[in-house]
UniProtKB/TrEMBL annotation, chain A:
Organism: Streptomyces paradoxus
CDD domains, alphabetized: PBP2_ThiY_THI5_like_1
Keyword field contains rRNA-binding: no
Gene3D superfamilies with a match to the protein in the record: Periplasmic binding protein-like II
Protein name (Swiss-Prot/TrEMBL): NitT/TauT family transport system substrate-binding protein
UniProtKB/TrEMBL annotation, chain B:
Keyword Transmembrane helix recorded: yes
Protein family (similarity comment): Belongs to the binding-protein-dependent transport system permease family.
Signal peptide residues on this chain, from the entry's feature table: none
Transmembrane segments: 64-86, 98-116, 122-142, 172-199, 219-240
The protein's name: ABC-type nitrate/sulfonate/bicarbonate transport system permease component
UniProt keywords, alphabetically: Cell membrane, Membrane, Transmembrane, Transmembrane helix, Transport
Record domain ABC transmembrane type-1: where: 57-241
Membrane topology: Multi-pass membrane protein
InterPro entries: MetI-like, MetI-like_sf
Length: 322, 257
């Protein structure tokens, strides 16, 4: 998500330019109506977090409300946040800390629907701090003086790992963080480049299949009901299209509920937009997909982020949340 | 001579594949992270039978071909104009030298802002990277025009256009062809990179999905495909070059040997 920061920087430059000009990023969207249906582009990351929206599209929850979804897989927030802000996408998917970061940098993102949440079970979450097979590390406290891999520095992974260490009685300042993509972490653990890694599924199942162990559920340690990611839009778009946003919110809430109660269909839909091998598919710990974001957990995440010095100024949750 | 070259090439490749099979099997690298060649070949077979793979290949080739076509036309036109108009070369030289080293990938945030994750984003990066390859070669090529030939054409009363057509262009063509060949390779690299990083549809995006899905053999299979693609493009570009320059000394010489 270093790319996100690059994107955000680029966006903030653009924002200042367009603010002076007449060009209107929210206005030339492709959300044109034709024959009662509205085409909506959603930027998503091709991982299990977004299974509900794929499932909801298949179940017709969006079509029922006159929304014709186009799900565009993009490589992380670098493409999605600027894409949404410039109106290429009407909606996007992003982790909560990235949205808080955007808000703290005055990028007007507006969360519209919940995305994905911790399972609420310590030791059985969809993401965990993992160590290699045979590692002497057994608890978060022992990460002091060790190297931990996170996908993006100063984001949700290191904030949550610090909290795990703190809760276990350790000093989070003594953990060294290294940035690498999730998919490289299993190999980096095996190759002893890092001692521990922040691994969500399917990297988690890969590490476990190779004999690695979980030592803490870092998302759960922030809050058992942590809202890990959400769907968002730009403030301009939300202001101009309240009806459309409302329809998207309703359809997404319905999709999330459906996904939460049909785990087998979630696994099934994963085969359509990811390439997760069949052997891993059955072993995946699915996240929960609550219909609504959990505000106290987001407040907690913002607090922890602030303590870690992530934000230039405190993000305003009232502005961010729906 | 040619036959034994081909045989040696094939033997070299066979050894390479055998190494790819043996190294993971012997446990020198972890099979999970670097699967043996056989498993990559299996994954490649599955990819080839998937229609989504072929549409991704089509997307990549579309981005490559369109980008290359734009870059070559723009590069040739710009190169000729800059060379022919007297002071233009001096005026543009510093700007070109400033813009040329900017890595195309550094423009990714800009591409995403302007065009999102669509084909146009890919085109922006591909055109930017390959344009300079062509432009610079055209500039060098024009500089290489024999002044005696140029003066002769002038004294025979050939107009500006006729001189470009009959003197400048044939002299510059070998350089232009080198530029096109380099641009063709660069365009493929940038097309795949753009897809990989931005997520625009194509082989690159498919590699990224395989990567995030921990589908390691599939990922390598797709990487092999991009390699093969690069090879074919280079072979194709050389064939085009040879045809276009069949009359030229360098190529005639090559054939005679």
């Amino acid at each position: 998500m270093r790319r996100l920061l690059v994107g955000l920087t680029a966006w903030s430059v653009l924002a200042s330019v367009t603010a002076c000009g007449s060009s209107d990023p929210g206005g030339k969207d492709t959300a044109g109506s034709s024959g009662g249906t509205t085409a909506v582009k959603v930027g998503v990351v091709p991982v299990l977090d977004v299974a509900p929206i794929y499932l909801g599209e298949k179940q017709g929850f969006y079509a029922d409300r006159g929304l014709e979804l186009e799900l565009v897989p993009a490589q992380g927030g670098a493409a999605i946040v600027p894409g949404v802000m410039s109106g290429q996408f009407q909606f996007g998917f992003s982790n909560t800390t990235s949205l808080l970061l955007a808000r703290s940098k005055n990028v007007p993102v507006k969360a519209v629907a919940n995305g994905v949440a911790s399972t609420g079970e310590d030791g059985a979450d969809f993401a965990a701090i993992t160590v290699r097979k045979g590692s002497p590390l057994t608890s978060a406290k022992q990460l002091e003086g060790k190297k931990a891999a996170v996908n993006t520095l100063n984001n949700i992974c290191d904030t949550s790992i610090r909290e795990s260490v703190r809760k276990d009685g350790g000093d989070p300042a003594k953990v060294e963080f290294v940035e690498m993509p999730f998919d490289r972490m299993p190999a980096a653990l095996d190759g002893r480049q890092v001692d521990a890694a922040c691994t969500p599924e399917p990297a988690l199942a890969t590490v476990k299949a190779a004999g690695g162990k979980e030592i803490a559920s870092n998302f759960h340690d922030v809050s058992p009901d942590l809202t890990v990611a959400m769907y968002f839009t730009s403030e301009q778009f939300a202001g101009k299209n309240p009806e459309l946003v409302k329809k998207f919110q309703e359809a997404t809430a319905e999709s999330l509920k459906y996904a939460d109660s049909h785990p087998e269909e979630v696994r099934q839909i994963l085969t359509t937009y990811t390439k997760i091998p069949a052997t891993l598919l059955e072993k995946l710990t699915l996240p929960r997909y609550p219909a609504e974001p959990d505000r106290p957990s987001i407040e907690r995440l913002a607090e922890l982020g602030e303590r870690d010095g992530l934000f230039e100024k405190k993000p305003d949750l009232d502005e961010l949340l729906p | 001579m040619r036959g034994s070259d081909a045989a040696l090439g094939a033997a070299g490749f066979a050894v390479f594949v055998l190494l790819g099979e043996a190294v993971p099997r012997l446990g020198l690298v972890d099979e999970d992270h670097f699967p043996p060649a056989g498993r990559i070949a299996g994954a490649l077979g599955r990819e080839l039978s998937d229609t989504a793979f072929w549409s991704a290949l089509g997307d990549t080739l579309t981005g490559w071909a369109l980008g290359l076509a734009i870059a070559v036309s723009a590069g040739v036109v710009a190169g000729v104009v800059i060379s022919v108009v007297p002071w233009l070369r001096e005026v543009t030289a510093s700007t070109i030298e400033f813009l040329r080293p900017i890595p195309s990938v550094a423009l990714i945030p800009l591409a995403v802002l302007l065009y999102g994750t669509e084909l146009r984003s890919v085109l922006l990066l591909v055109v930017y990277a390959s344009f300079w390859q062509v432009l610079i070669q055209v500039l060098y090529g024009v500089r290489d025009v024999d002044p005696v030939a140029e003066e002769t054409a002038r004294s025979y009363g050939l107009g500006a256009w006729a001189r470009v057509r009959h003197v400048l262009w044939p002299s510059a063509l070998p350089y232009v062809m080198t530029g096109v060949r380099l641009a063709a390779a660069v365009a493929l690299i940038l097309a795949v990179t753009a897809e990989l990083v931005i997520g625009a549809p194509g082989l690159g995006a498919r590699i990224a999905v395989a990567q995030t899905s921990q589908a390691v053999p599939e990922m390598y299979a797709l990487i092999v495909v991009t390699g093969v693609l690069g090879l074919l493009i280079n072979v194709g570009a050389r064939a085009v070059e040879r045809r276009a320059l069949a009359w030229h000394q360098s190529v005639r010489g090559e054939v005679a040997v």
